[in-house]
């Protein structure tokens, strides 16, 4: 009888179903074979040539009207075609290119297009159809950093730093580089906003660079076993060691130096910082005239910082402009920026009042004015409009889930620019008078506008259609609920199963991250729902996600609630989510699962072992298992050291909770994960074995902290199968 | 209604069930908390004092009557008590002992008991109640080898070799030992019967030893992450590299030298073998007078060997006594043994006629007589009875599944000694006139007899009761079926589910090993059924096992059928087993599983990927995945090199078959497996990921090739759960 009813239902609903397609996992996961064709909203490649907006096409480049958003054929760009560029490249014995999507226009005043292949750069005058300048770096050069002012290029080879000047002369900056002594590379494990290791002075004549000695640091014994296609490659058939300097919390850390190289004299001075042991040198910035260099120095405790000024020619420290302290931690992430129209003043970003805000200082370090304030976060400084005397930035002032573009003048008057909804990724023009406003919102897959920063007038360039229009898209809802503190609003996202039947009870999976510097619910397309969420909804799961205290964009107190015992408050908040889910009649509280990666893998494992009666199945990816195995910079910021906070480390260690595992837990890790090193997962396996509990395991040999490409699709098949096996 | 029926059934069957107990996994698996109490048959600890048999007790030692098998109190051993021994140990400042189970009696003519703690040896006269001699080696000494003739002890410390003579003087043999240059340790990865690295001359005045240079060998990058109890231990919190010299098939191998050290002169001579590259020096034996040393030299191809005689004082090679060739491979595993009553003759074991047999040679290498022959295998030479002029050995002449004790005289007359059934583990007395005959059979848990080698008369010492008498033991059957060649008989073992109901259809699991040097079905207790087999039968599985061609004890042709393409013929034979199972009405052919470890892990993975329609689920442990990753000695014997047999390596590589995986396959490996290195399993994972197939994975961090102790119990819970999840 039940079978007949099912058949009837199937027959009745079939016509409706047939109207819209079902997703494949390849449609939904980046790396999937059909992802770009079926999921990625249409886009246009736009860039700035001074204040002129150019659409970079396949075989030509065209100007875009800032008034109408339409491309204008004819005019100055007529001769800028793929065919012409390739003719010139060929004539000079250079490789041709396949498209112009990456063409850039560094000089507002000149018809020069840059064809940049990283190690091979070519500057072409498309009016005279001639090659203006070129550079060819060694094939093993990396970390290239080009100064458009001097045409000098900094780069590294095997951890040594070189500069090739405009004339093609090669200037070695160092010659003793090794994996343990690196020049010109990013330092401090990319924390404190550091993303690179070279910093050209404004006129491109001096190069500031990082040098890092990590010989005293423990080396994590990574192993390379990957044999693509199953065939031994390279010199050795046997797996090879790949030791990776990795300073663990509380242990000896690396030492960082800042040098300044002058290609004209081939001379390097190092900033006279004194012994660099247990000190962080971050947020390097140049004075407009290149005579001074600024950095923010932070103590190892990360609770005291100072903005220091050095002489760029002698390396001597001139003065400390000001200091900043925080009882928990102080985390500078943005270099100071001098006003383009007044080199005696700079802006500085800090969360010292509880939210990230802009402050105006004079060059003596005197605070002139707090430019922004309120219960919102300034996210990025885009630049300046000198004519208007404004600073352009993004913030979530409109809504905690949004990111919008604003200007602020020196009196603190803020103006919203462009569309007031959604999540914006703007690109400012040379003078700051316009920006390309690429944005999405829960109902907008992608819009691109050109917006004037003076008056906010916008012209639409693209309104991309919904790539999922022909698919069965599940219902996606958001809302707020109270954190475990009873006060704070937390945002959640709830996705109902495709073809939702409110009479049924569904297995429910919580996707969690939960750590700092990240969030999951925002006002982007589909409220930031992940492709896998959609896939799981299609498989008949309720999908839930909650940004707990500790996550980003909600202010310092929100983030610092987790200080010295990561995971504890976060879990309490996630349990608020569970309580909410239990009030929903269609959620089967006996079939609750949880999945997360990295900090989310830590959260997943924590939840599975701390609340064994709540969760029946979980999948933890690349988890932190014990913060003692995590690195110094990130780890000690939130946890202090194992020496100074033994209780916090003990309380949060999942090795201690391995004996509490009851449900089914699959732990997955990248075989060469350099972030959450394999020791985390393997130690947890060992602890579970010793405790007589039974996790499951999978690994992606050769992969790092995240799976990419087809591995990412494979991964999500594995995760889905695990919930199908144990939660359905 | 169904529920009520179940309840009724439960009530009806409860009284019957209650009569016998069910096993726990701890009852059945070595390492389980109740294994020794519930599964291990009662035993007695017996040893020889010359030709007197002594039972080593907890707190006393007693003579055992060779006529009646009973212990005799009183007499000479009266004063040999734990209390007395500990008094003497204490009086000399030595640690006391807890029992006398390990007491040995090296000197037939003297009332001396040896208390041997490895590094601390004490020889006590229990009549005079005095300490005769003692030695205390450094705490980090290992590989101890004691000569009872000279009382000298050889041992190694950090890969260097030392000898401490009877007077306590320490003689360093080497001082340049490193992990890459080892002295006094076993060589050639324990192949060719090699188990140790030191060999005392008959009178204990000269020490032959192995030296091995493995600096030219690739080092497998093992990693130590184990943190027992979840707490960081040792100097470093970060995982540590543990490189292990591991020569992979076809790659550069190590070099072995044989030295002879004279503690009286502190002088070492090395045998003048010439360049040791790609040569094996095995089966070291001393001439009775210590003037000559013999070894079998084998080429890297392992198809040509020679028995060579060297001068023990000069190291010069004197002559080759004879050579032996085989078109596939020649595998010498037993050193020659001179007749105790005639030093001009020795016995030699070889399979040159197709089975392992004893041959008598004179010391010039002239073959005098083949002593044993027939379609059976000589297993071990136990020693000699000089008075009778006989050689004592074990063989499976009675039945291919048995191992019995025989004597043979120099005319080739063989005599069965002791019980004619089962599987015997004999220990010969000093003169060879008696042996302790410890044996089991399918219906005998353990018997111990004392047997005269002159007339075969036996006295029973122990008839252990069945430790499973109170348990529900499943039905265990054996039989033969034809191999895939249509000719050869293969032995199988079939275990029916506990409480077998012939009307039901059961999931069925094949346990497989299948490689050389091992077998699974024999005439030991319960036909060699493993504890896990019993456990699975109790969970409702049919358990099946078949010793395919390639396994041991069936002759050379049987073993060499697999030459140059390991796994291929073995799988064909296993499929014969599958066909047999399909004829059994109670076997559910849609729910067939397979499990094996090491070579059996290779077989399991091979079967799962080669016959994806046959097997629904499998668990492969510590598998070989590609013989290119296996070591030189074992691997090249059966597979030749990847260079000389590329087709065989390609044909058997499971990396190539990763794309054929359809069923559920769990692969498990020891995190520090030094035998089948983790590269096997990890490369297979990578190949499956690349091919879009979906194996499962588990690992035991810190464990080697096999799981021991409580890990072994955990492992079998994991294996069982996997079949419960995917086969039931």
Overview of this protein structure:
2 copies of one chain form a homodimer. By secondary structure, chain A is an alpha+beta fold. Chain A has 4 domains: 44-136, no CATH class; 139-224 and 240-335, Dipeptidylpeptidase IV, N-terminal domain (Methanol Dehydrogenase, Chain A), CATH 2.140.10; 337-466, Neuraminidase, CATH 2.120.10.30; 474-726, 3-Layer(aba) Sandwich (Rossmann fold), CATH 3.40.50.1820. Helices cover 17% and strands 34% of the residues of chain A. An 8-stranded mixed beta sheet of chain A has the order 35-36-38-37-39-40-41-42, sandwiched between helices. In chain A, strands 12, 13, 14, 17 and 18 form a 5-stranded antiparallel beta sheet that branches. In chain A, strand 29 (404-409) and strand 30 (414-417) form a beta hairpin. At the A-B interface, strand 15, strand 16, helix 11, strand 42 and helix 12 of A face strand 15, strand 16, helix 11, strand 42 and helix 12 of B.
Give the topology:
The structure is a homodimer of 728-residue chains.
Chain A: H1 2-19, H2 25-28, H3 35-38, E1 46-49, E2 52-56, E3 61-64, E4 71-72, H4 82-91, E5 112-116, E6 120-125, E7 130-136, E8 142-146, E9 153-157, E10 160-164, E11 170-172, E12 181-183, E13 198-200, E14 207-213, E15 219-224, E16 240-245, E17 255-262, E18 267-270, E19 279-286, E20 292-299, E21 304-311, E22 317-325, E23 337-339, E24 342-350, E25 357-362, E26 367-370, E27 378-385, E28 390-395, E29 404-409, E30 414-417, E31 423-428, E32 434-441, E33 444-452, E34 458-463, E35 476-482, E36 489-495, E37 506-511, H5 531-538, E38 542-546, H6 556-560, H7 568-582, E39 587-597, H8 599-610, E40 617-621, H9 632-639, H10 646-652, E41 664-670, H11 679-691, E42 696-700, H12 710-726
Parallel strand pairs in A: 37-38, 37-39, 39-40, 40-41, 41-42
Antiparallel strand pairs in A: 1-2, 2-3, 3-4, 5-6, 6-7, 8-9, 9-10, 10-11, 12-14, 13-14, 14-17, 15-16, 17-18, 19-20, 20-21, 21-22, 23-24, 24-25, 25-26, 27-28, 28-29, 29-30, 31-32, 32-33, 33-34, 35-36, 36-38
């Amino acid at each position: 009888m039940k079978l007949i009813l099912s058949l009837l239902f199937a027959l009745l609903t079939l016509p409706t179903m047939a109207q819209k397609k079902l997703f494949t996992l390849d449609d939904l996961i980046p790396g999937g074979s059909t992802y770009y064709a079926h999921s990625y909203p249409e886009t246009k490649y736009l860039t700035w040539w001074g204040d002129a907006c150019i659409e970079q096409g396949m075989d030509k480049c065209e100007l875009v009207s800032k008034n109408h958003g339409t491309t204008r054929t004819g005019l100055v760009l007529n001769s800028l075609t793929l065919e012409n560029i390739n003719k010139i490249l060929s004539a000079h014995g250079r490789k041709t290119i396949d498209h112009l999507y990456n063409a850039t226009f560094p000089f507002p005043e000149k018809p020069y297009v840059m064809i940049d292949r990283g190690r091979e750069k070519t500057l072409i005058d498309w009016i005279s159809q001639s090659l203006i300048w070129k550079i060819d770096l060694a094939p093993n050069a990396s970390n290239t950093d080009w100064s458009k002012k001097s045409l000098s290029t900094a780069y590294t080879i095997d951890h040594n730093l070189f500069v090739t000047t405009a004339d093609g002369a090669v200037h070695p900056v160092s010659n003793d580089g090794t994996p343990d002594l690196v020049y010109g590379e990013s330092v401090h494990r990319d924390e404190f906003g550091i993303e690179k290791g070279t910093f050209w002075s404004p006129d491109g004549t001096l190069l500031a660079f990082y040098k890092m000695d990590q010989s005293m640091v423990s080396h994590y014994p990574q192993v390379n076993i990957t044999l693509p296609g199953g065939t031994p490659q390279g010199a050795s058939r046997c797996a090879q060691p790949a030791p990776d300097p990795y300073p663990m919390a509380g242990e000896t850390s690396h030492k960082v130096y800042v040098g300044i190289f002058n290609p004209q004299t081939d001379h390097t001075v190092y900033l006279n910082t004194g012994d660099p042991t247990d000190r962080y040198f971050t947020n390097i910035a140049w004075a407009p005239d290149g005579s001074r260099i600024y950095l923010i120095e932070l103590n190892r405790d990360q609770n005291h910082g100072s903005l220091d000024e050095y002489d760029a020619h002698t390396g001597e420290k001139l003065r400390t402009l000001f200091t900043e302290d925080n009882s928990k931690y102080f985390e500078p992430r943005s270099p100071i920026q001098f006003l383009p129209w007044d080199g005696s003043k700079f802006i500085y970003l800090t969360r010292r009042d509880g939210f990230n805000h802009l402050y105006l200082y004079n060059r003596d370090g005197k605070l002139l004015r707090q430019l922004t304030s309120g219960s919102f976060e300034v996210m990025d400084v885009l630049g300046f409009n000198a004519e208007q005397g404004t600073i352009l930035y993004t913030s979530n002032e409109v809504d905690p889930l949004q990111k919008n573009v604003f200007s602020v003048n020196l009196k603190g008057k803020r103006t919203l620019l462009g569309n007031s909804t959604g999540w914006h990724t703007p690109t400012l023009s040379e003078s700051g008078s316009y920006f390309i406003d690429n944005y999405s919102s829960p109902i907008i897959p992608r819009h691109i506008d050109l917006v004037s920063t003076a008056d906010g007038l916008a012209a639409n360039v693209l309104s991309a259609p919904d790539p999922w229009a022909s698919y069965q898209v599940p219902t996606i809802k958001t809302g707020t609920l109270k954190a475990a503190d009873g006060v704070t609003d937390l945002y959640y996202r709830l996705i109902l199963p495709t073809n939702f039947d409110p009479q049924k009870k569904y297995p429910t999976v919580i996707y969690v991250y939960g750590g700092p510097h990240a969030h999951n619910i925002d006002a982007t397309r589909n409220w930031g729902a992940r492709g896998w969420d959609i896939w799981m909804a299609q498989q008949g799961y309720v999908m839930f996600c909650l940004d707990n205290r500790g996550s980003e964009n909600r202010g310092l107190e929100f983030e610092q609630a987790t200080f010295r015992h990561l995971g504890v408050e976060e879990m309490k908040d996630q349990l608020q989510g569970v309580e909410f889910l239990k009030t929903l009649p269609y959620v089967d509280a006996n079939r609750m699962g949880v999945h997360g990666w990295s900090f989310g893998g830590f959260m997943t494992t924590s939840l599975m072992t701390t609340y064994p009666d709540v969760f029946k199945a979980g999948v933890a990816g690349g988890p932190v298992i014990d913060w003692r195995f995590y690195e110094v910079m990130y780890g000690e910021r939130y946890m202090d050291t194992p020496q100074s906070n033994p209780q916090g480390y003990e309380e949060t260690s999942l090795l201690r909770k391995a004996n509490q595992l009851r449900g089914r837990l699959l732990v997955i890790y990248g075989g060469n994960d350099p972030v959450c090193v394999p020791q985390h997962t393997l130690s947890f396996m060992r602890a579970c074995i010793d405790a007589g509990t039974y996790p499951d395991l999978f690994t992606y040999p050769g992969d790092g902290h995240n799976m990419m490409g087809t591995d990412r699709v494979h991964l999500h098949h594995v995760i889905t199968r695990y919930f199908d096996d144990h939660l359905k």
